[in-house]
Structure formats: C-alpha cells, structure tokens
Write a structure and sequence with these properties.
- This protein is α/β, with parallel strands linked by helices.
- The strands form 3 sheets. It has an 8-stranded mixed beta sheet, with helices on both faces.
- Helix 9 crosses helix 10.
- The chain starts with 11 loop residues before the first helix and ends with a helix.
Length: 819
C-alpha cells in the first residue's frame, strides 16, 4: 500500500473535491436548485455560439462574399436633377382687347397638382421619346433588354418555381381604331411601339413638389424632376428634355383656344375672299354678256325691293353665322363659359361678399361683447350657473348663425352661378334660333320678290344682286380681318406660366449602389443569422457537451471529464538503458499508460480521487462502470479507472460483466475460456474461483473475464450466486470495478448496480441524449443503486475553457519542472 499522503488531492483536484463534498447524494437537489436560480446566462449563449463558431464564420464569409460579388457586378447609377416652376395661369392685361375675358387660376391647388401629374403621363413621355430620338439610343435599347426579365425571375425559372409569362393576344390596330373614334390607327400603333421606352422613363424618373423645409412644411410652386441612369450624361440629357418639352407642351395648350379661334377666322376670311372673287368674276361676265357697262337708272319697283331684300338677306345670314359660331364655341368650352359667367356676375358677387362681410363683422362684434359679459359674470358666478350658460348659449347660436350664413351664401352662389351659366347658354341658343328665323323669313320674302321680278330685267337684277353681295361680303371680311389681328396679339402676348428654373448637369458621384454599406450590412446580418442558427441548433441539440450541462440537466455531479481519445498517443515509449523504445505490447485503450503527465492521465487520477472520497468513512469496495448506450467509452473508462486505483498499491479486481459483448480479455491479452459466466453457472469452490481470476503483469491488475457467452446473462447476474460471489470478492480485494452492458439496452447493468457500493455513469460528450441518460438514472435509482456521479467522456478541451486551462497549466507546470 502507498502512503496516504499520495492520495491527498492538490490544485484543481482539491477545488473539485471542495465543491463535491457539499453535494448531497441521492437525487442531488442542490444542482437543480442552483441551476434553476441562475437561469440561462449570457455566457451560455456565447458557449453555444462558440461551439459552432466555424458555422457562424462560414455563413458570414459566404454571405459577405456573395454580397460583395453582387455589389461589384452592379453598375453605378447616377441621378440628374432639374427644377420646373409652375405659376398661376393668367393673361397679360395690357394686351386685353375687346370684351374677351382674361383667364386666371390664382390660388387653385388643383391646377398645380394636375400639372404635377401631367409630368408623368404617357402622352408627354411619348413625345419625349420621339423628340429625343430615344428609340435609337443604344443605352435605352440595352436597358429595355435588361429589364425584360429580372435576375430573380431567371433564377426561379431555372429551378422550375416560376413559369414564363403567357403572351397576350394583341389586338390589331384596326380593332382598336374601330373602338375609338378619337385616336387614329397611326397614333395607336405608335403608342404600342413606344410603350417599352415610356415604361423605362417612368420607372427611373420622379416628379416631386419642393417644400420650403421639413420644419415649416410650406408649399412652393417648384417641382423637382430627377432621372436615374447608368450614364450621367444620359441622365442629364433626359431630365432636361422632359422639362423643356413639358414647358413647350403647356404653352401650346395655353394658346390652343386662341389658335382655334384664329383657325376659324382664317377659314371664314378665306371663304369670304373666295366668294368675293367669284362674284366679281361673275359680275364682269354678266356685264360683258349683256353689253352693259352700267345698270339702267330707271329701275322698276320690284328690282329696288329685291335689292333691299338681298341686302337684308346677306346681313341676316351673316348675323346667323356669327350667332351660331358664338353659341357653339361657348357650349363646347367650359373655361370660356366660366369666364363669361364670372364677368357677368362680378358686381353681384361683390355685393354679396360685402353683405356677408358686414354680417360676419356684426356677428363677431356681438360675440366679442357676449364674451366680455361672460367674463364679467364669471367673477360672480360659476361655470354651471344659468347666467353663464345663457351667455354660452348665445355665443354658440351666433357662431352657428355665422357658419350657416357662410354655407348658405356659398350654396346660393353655386346655384346662382349655375343658373346664370344656363341662362347664358339659353340666351345664346335663343339668339341663334332668332337669327336663324329672321334669315328664313327674309329668305322667303326674297324668294317671293325674286319670282315677281324674274320677268323684268333679269340681267340687271343679277348684276345688282352681285354688287350688293360683294359689298356686304367685303364689309364682313374687313371685320373678320380686324378680329384675327386682335386674336393674334393676345396669343403672342400670353407668357408661358411654366418655366425651367434649374437645368440638370451630369452628376459626378453615383447615388447607388452603396457597396460598402451593403457589404457591411450583409456581413452583420449574416453574422446574426449564423449566431441565430447556432442557437437554434443548440436548442435542437439534446446531447450533453459539458460538465455544466451534466449538473444542470441531469442533477448529478460531474466527477471527471475525460479528454478526447484523439489527444492520446497511438504508441507508448519505454525507457530502456537510458533510451526510449516503442512498447509493442501497448494497447491504445490503456490511456493512463500513454503519458503520466498528459491530460488523460490527470483526468483519470482526478476520477480516482473522486471515487475514493465518494463515500463517508471509507473508500468504496465495489464500483460499477456503465453507460446508457453502446460506444460511449465505458469499458475504456472502467479499465483506466481500475489501473489508476491499482497504482495506489491497492489490490484491484476488474470484472467483465458484459457477457453479451466481452472485451476485457482482448485488452489485456488474456484467455476467456473461463470467467464470470463459468462461476455463476456452476457450484465452484472458493479455491477454484480464485484460479479463474487472472493478473496483468504490467498493471498488477486482477481480471475476471466474462467467460463463454451464456444464453441468459441477465438471469445469471440477478441470481443468488452473483450476490455470494460479490461478497467473497469484496473480502479478497481492496476495490472491485465491474464493467456491464449499457443500461438503456439491457437490464444487466441495473441488476449489478444493486449489488455494488456505487455506480459511475459514463456519458459520451456530444453523443449521449439527455432523455436516455435520465431514463438510465431513473432505472438505477428505482433499484436503490447509489450513483457516485457522471464521467463525461471524449470531451473537447478547446470547447471547455475550464478543463482547457487546467490541462494547459498542468502541462506547463511539468515542463517547468523538467527544465
């Protein structure tokens, strides 16, 4: 036996033992209570992420790289800006001639909003495409091809998640033309051809009103036009073209009424000029044919009357034409009708507004007096008094009266305006019908008189008629010519109320893409996604990875953590004659022999110390090493635990109770002809029993092999013979270590657990399920077995900080001693 001082723990073993001696045995309620109070701390999140750190790093690198490549392939986008000013539409009063009303829309917000919408309508953009020759621009043709199918749609189609859009059957131009009498077939065909270019311009342009500031939020009459394109020159070119054409279109629209009147007057002037010329030619021919230079002064009464009727007929016809033109122009032009109505009602509107203002002033004065009286009453009465309430009631009645009067006045004005407009239309229509009736009456008289004078002097009559007709037509021609000159002066003097304030210049700095910002954002988001994925995988992970999880989830003490076997040497060096030689008989499962100063050896020594101090008063005599599932390292742990106990000088026996899959005899290169199954299936004497036990010469460890595999291992282990055998062996050996099959798979380990002083439960780090381990713990506790604790096997030192530093310092400490 070794000196007891060799068993006294030092360093980390002492700290571990100080922690364990305070832990009550049995169900270990202290671990559950402590962990429940702590909860899931921030360090737990970090450990969960650190465990899958390469997953987080990989996702971050992948997503960041993809984002960087995508942003690098995206072209620069430049934005050009121009400003357009939309003023009120008002004619120049200095050029006002005649009785024509001036047009004005001062303070009309609907007019400004309408112009804002007109900036993006199809007709304006089609005109921009035509006048700027965008159809032949290579940049626009390329954009049209790029915008046809997006990258995302192409990706979805490639994997079969999206289908190609069905081509709509296009109606022929003739069908559309037949459905609309407004547009011609050429216009519709052109609109269809230019539609893709119009869509591109609308997609990349914006038209927003400019406000004074975000704080004051005051409106202005400025509109900011912007256009985005990969080429700064093309962006400036397009936005300048839109602003110029918009202003030009507005000017053309403003002068459209004057142009229409001018066209009508020119048409009538040309008609009168043609009629006068034709009549003069006819008059000359009549005089030549009749050989008459002058008419006979001795004219008959019928001819004189016919001449008078002819003149009246010409005047009536011209008056009818003018009345018809005025009636039709006012009936088809709402703006002109509105101007005539406002001009006619201007005096009445002024009187009404004066009366309304007088009423409001008088009522406001009464309200002010009542409020003064009410304020005086409040010095003597409360708000609930009848006097104060009476004043409040009077004030409210006056305010309601003001609102009702204003509303009624507005309603009356609208109705009055409508009635006057209807009256104007009616009067013009009545005047047109009256002149038409007068013309018809004079024409009837003229026809009757003409028939009477036919037999008199036909040639003279025709000459007189033509002369009167020519004279009358020249008078009307002179009047129409004067009106045309006045109309042209008004049209030329009307300034354009829409103007370009600031032109666009090619920008130097692109507005997008923001490559650095996007890549950094992708890196941060991918990092968060990777961390979230790591936490989600941690949530789904039902296995045990650390000693903290053993204590938190299982409620059992973690008495040791065995590092991964990959860290153990695959061969052992022996010191022979001062030189190191390879031990050919070394078995890799005898980990404690690999290097006495390794982390593995230190871990098994710590396990040995925990076992020796696991029971009060004395060290345990018998010990069961088992696991929940196969391949968790229970046999390796049992062998190295037994060897570490034997290194203290104690007499240690290891029993292979795994009679389903025995391995101990192969580890120590011993025979398995006789063993535990032989002793339990026969009545052997005590001397024969000890002859069955074999001893390893290197470790001085005693071995009881499993023996031949029986058909009923559970019945043998649960028999009375097994109980007697354990009692006899406990009297003969200092410690007995039993290796059994997995508990969750077979009942053999549970049966043996009720016969020994304590059970060591081996858990494979990162492999063993919590639920399975809890089930194994419950099976052992149901038969009254005492669980010393859990040995966490195959632990990754880099993932467990505490054991990593313990191993690091222990190795450095040994290295310092050697030096």
């Amino acid at each position: 036996m070794k000196d007891i001082r060799e068993l006294v723990p030092t360093g980390s073993e002492k700290r571990e033992l100080e922690r364990q001696v305070e832990i009550p045995q049995g169900n270990y309620p202290m671990y559950r209570a402590v962990r429940q109070e702590e909860g899931f701390q921030l360090a737990d999140y970090w450990r969960a992420i650190r465990k899958r750190l390469w997953l987080v790093i990989g996702i971050t690198i992948l997503m960041t790289t993809l984002a960087a490549v995508y942003m690098a392939r995206r072209p620069n986008v430049f934005q050009a800006k121009a400003r357009v000013q939309v003023d009120s539409e008002q004619a120049n009063p200095d050029l006002q001639t005649g009785d024509r009303p001036m047009r004005s829309n001062v303070g009309d917000t609907a007019y400004f909003n309408t112009q804002l919408q007109n900036l993006t309508n199809d007709s304006l953009l089609r005109r921009v495409v035509k006048e700027l020759n965008i159809e032949t621009n290579p940049a626009f043709l390329k954009m049209r091809g790029d915008d046809s199918v997006s990258a995302w749609q192409s990706l979805l189609r490639s994997v079969g998640l999206a289908s190609k859009p069905e081509k709509k059957e296009e109606k022929g131009v003739g069908e559309v033309t037949n459905a609309s009498s407004v547009a011609s077939g050429v216009d519709i065909e052109e609109a269809i051809r230019l539609a893709p270019f119009v869509d591109i311009i609308r997609k990349n342009m914006t038209a927003d009103p400019i406000r004074e500031s975000r704080a004051t939020n005051k409106d202005t009459r400025l509109i900011e036009l912007t256009y985005k394109d990969n080429s700064p020159e093309l962006a400036a070119f397009v936005v300048n073209g839109i602003s110029d054409i918009f202003a030009k279109t507005n000017q053309e629209k403003r002068t459209k009424t004057s142009s229409g009147t001018s066209d009508y007057l020119q048409e009538k002037i040309a008609t009168y000029q043609t009629d006068i010329k034709n009549d003069e030619q006819r008059l000359l021919k009549l005089k030549q044919d009749a050989d008459i230079l002058e008419t006979n002064p001795n004219e008959t009464l019928a001819i004189q009357q016919l001449q008078g009727l002819s003149k009246q007929l010409q005047e009536a016809e011209n008056l009818r034409k003018l009345a018809e033109a005025q009636y039709l122009s006012v009936k088809g032009d709402a703006n002109k009708l509105k101007a005539l109505t406002d001009e006619k009602l201007a005096p009445d509107f002024t009187a009404r507004n004066n009366n309304l203002s007088a009423f409001r002033n008088e009522a406001s004065k009464k309200i002010a007096d009542l409020r003064v009286e009410r304020q005086g009453l409040l010095r003597e009465y409360t708000l609930d008094s009848d006097e104060v309430k009476d004043k409040d009631s009077q004030i409210k009645e006056l305010e309601k009266a003001i609102d009702a009067t204003i509303k009624k006045n507005q309603t009356d004005l609208d109705l009055y305006r409508k009635s006057q407009a209807d009256s104007i239309i009616t009067n013009l229509e009545r005047e047109f019908k009256r002149t038409q009736a007068v013309e018809a009456k004079i024409r009837a008289s003229y026809d009757q008189q003409y028939a009477q004078a036919q037999g008199q002097d036909s040639a003279g009559i025709q000459i007189k008629i033509l002369e009167e007709k020519i004279k009358t037509n020249k008078t009307f021609l002179e009047s129409l010519t004067k009106q045309e000159r006045e109309n042209n002066v008004v049209a030329v003097g009307s300034e354009n109320n829409i103007s370009v304030v600031d032109i666009a210049i090619p920008p130097d700095v692109p507005i997008s893409p923001r490559r650095l910002t996007t890549v950094v954002a992708a890196m941060l988001l991918s990092t968060l996604f990777g961390a979230g994925l790591a936490l989600f995988l941690e949530y789904l992970d039902d296995t045990i990875h650390s000693t903290e999880e053993v204590e938190m989830h299982l409620g059992l003490p973690a008495i040791a953590a065995i590092p991964t076997i990959d860290s153990a040497p695959k061969r052992r060096l022996l010191l022979v004659g001062g030189k190191e030689e390879v031990d050919e008989n070394y078995n890799s499962e005898l980990l404690i022999y690999a290097d006495p100063r390794s982390a593995l050896a230190e871990a098994y020594r710590q396990l040995r110390t925990s076992i020796l101090l696991s029971t009060a008063g004395h060290a345990p005599k018998s010990l069961l090493v088992t696991s929940s599932l196969p391949a968790e390292g229970k046999t390796t742990t049992a062998v190295n635990t037994a060897i570490s106990l034997a290194q203290t000088g104690a007499k240690v026996l290891i029993i292979d109770a795994d009679m389903r899959r025995p391995r101990l005899h192969s580890i120590f290169n011993k025979s398995n002809a006789q063993g535990l199954s032989t002793l339990l299936s026969s009545q052997m004497e005590e001397a024969d029993m000890f002859e069955t036990i074999q001893q390893d010469d290197v470790s001085k460890l005693y071995l009881l092999a499993s023996g031949p595999v029986p058909p009923n291992p559970a019945e043998l282990l649960g028999s009375e013979q097994m109980t007697i055998l354990m009692r006899k062996l406990e009297n003969a050996f200092t410690h007995i270590v039993v290796d059994s099959p997995p508990i969750a798979s077979f009942t053999d380990g549970v049966l043996v657990g009720s016969l020994v002083d304590g059970v060591i439960l081996v858990v494979h780090s990162g492999k063993s399920s919590r639920q399975v381990i809890k089930r194994s713990r419950q099976l052992l506790q149901d038969v009254g077995a005492k669980i010393f604790g859990v040995v966490l096997n195959n632990v990754n030192l880099k993932a467990q900080n505490s054991y990593y530093y313990q191993s690091y310092y222990s190795q450095n400490y040994y290295r310092s001693d050697d030096e």
